[in-house]
Each structure stands twice: as C-alpha cells, then as structure tokens.
Amino acid sequence: MTWLEWALGFMLLSLYITCLFTVCSMTFQKGRTVLGIIGIFAPWLWLIGAFLPAKPGSRYALAQQTAGLRPVTQEVAPAAG
To answer: Residue ranges per domain, the chain?
Structure first.
C-alpha cells in the first residue's frame, strides 16, 4: 500500500469515528434505535435518523421539554453608594 492509500484510509476511519460519536448518538437519543443499529453498516442512515423529529418520550424530546421549562433568573447588582 502506498502512503496515499494509508492517508485516505486514516481520513475515512477518522470521519467514521467522528460520525459514530456525534450523529449516531443523536440518532439513538431521538429514539431511532433501528436506524442507529443499521447505520453501523450504512452510515448515511445516521444522518436520516438525526434529521427526523424525535419520537415522543425519547431522551432528546424530554430534554427539549425540560429546557423550555427552566426559569430564567437574573442577578440584581447591588445599588452603588
């Protein structure tokens, strides 16, 4: 194998591992388990699962609901003087 083949192989492996930790984990969090598992062999399915809306009751949907319910607190600066 030439150095070009090694470099290309390393770049593709790096891309796959990056997608595994980002897009694949989002697919599983959205409740798309089947797309996540099959995506191991066809990684473009991870992208489909990441772009589809989250299933009700999934980790992602619950996190989005609780993010909207947090009260916004504001600190008041003490008066000068």
So the answer is: 28-55
